[in-house]
Structure formats: C-alpha cells, structure tokens
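INTERNAL AUDIT FORM
Audit reference: QA-55
Scope: verify that the stored structure record matches its stored sequence.
Auditor: D.O.
Record contents follow.
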Amino acid sequence: MARLQAASRAAGARAGHVWVKPAPIPSVLVQAAQESELGAVVRILASDPRDALARALAGLGRAFMARDS
C-alpha cells in the first residue's frame, strides 16, 4: 500500500500537481473574532454545541442584541 501511495505522489509530481495538506479549520472563537457584525459573531459562536465558552459568549451577545433592539 505504501508503495502505491508513493507511486501516486510521484505521478502527481510529474504531472505538475503539488500535494498540499489543507489548512486546519480555525476554531469558532477565531472565526467569530474575524467578524465585525454582532449577529454574525453570535451565529458563529452558537454553531459549536460542544464549546461551552463559545455558547456562553453567544448568550452574552444575544443579551446585547436584545438590549439594543
């Protein structure tokens, strides 16, 4: 199997293809920090049900949104 994978990589390199490992997906906290609109930040933070900090921050954002409306 390893020989087949090596041959496949070599064939791709000969064809001008470069095999690059994709960049990891940033955490929801990083994604939210890159947003400027509060609604988008809250949606991103609420999107990961396993992240307790993100859920708490989403709740705080919702409170700010309710207060401002």
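Auditor finding: record pair retrieved intact. The longest helix spans residues 52-68.
Action required: none
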